Amino acid sequence: MENNWRASIEENPTERNEVCSLSMVRRVAAMLDVDTASFSIGDLLPRGWHFFLLAGETRKSDLRSDGFPGLGVPLPDLGLPRLLLGGRTVSYKGDITIGSEVARTSFVSNITEKTPPSGRMAIVTIQHELRPVSTPAPAIIETQTYILLSGKSGQSNTKKPIAPPIQSSYQKQVVPNETLLFQYSALGFNSHKIHLDRDYAQKVEGLPDLVVNGGLATLLLTEFLRNDLGLKLTDIKVKHTAPLFCDRPMTLAADRSETGWQLKIVDDTNEPAVEMEAKIMEV
């Protein structure tokens, strides 16, 4: 039976067309405190802003118990109530024009089930392709890796000791508040309760506070490269090693590497939470 649903999912991608609308782009700009009037039909969508084109459209009655709207494709019920983003890769083969129609294809590329000492878990990898309908090849290919778990979080509410400040060439501090989490979740149609419902996050999942969306953390890093450092992305690889929490300062850091840039986000105790490898377009 397992092989039947696995084959069915992997062989039946979800396909639909999206519009890179000016109104959505301006709302992303407003969330990021960028001048909304600086964007017009025909402009190129800033690289990193395509997340709203990957939004789910799951009916309310079909939501998971944690409120997560889905991965862009249907999945079987694996009996694992907790879901976390483990990482993503994004390859920019081209650009998307604001106002254009985009063909989106999403499919499960891998499902791995494991039973470590901490309990049963599954790793699900979804691939998304965004292709302007006027072109034959995808402009953006993104993979997202999710970790499905059973039981409560192993996070402790005990205050961690503060590690020494990190050393890096470029740094920026951000304090993600409830408004930012709400706006990002709304733009991506993400109703996962760990980002929006403090009682659920604390009492059901055993977390200290609302969790910063993994996609939002990635967006803040790509904006750091784009806005603060004036660089244009070609590829990123992101790994989430620990959750980040609402209203707690986090530090974005960047350093050049032999192959591009190494970035990270550390939490309010200076412990790493997100790691990113980025390749940059050469001018």
Automatic annotation (TrEMBL):
UniProt xrefs under SUPFAM superfamilies: Thioesterase/thiol ester dehydrase-isomerase (SSF54637)
The organism's place on the tree of life at top rank: Bacteria
GO molecular function: (3R)-hydroxyacyl-[acyl-carrier-protein] dehydratase activity
The protein's name: MaoC-like domain-containing protein
Native source organism of the sequence: Runella aurantiaca
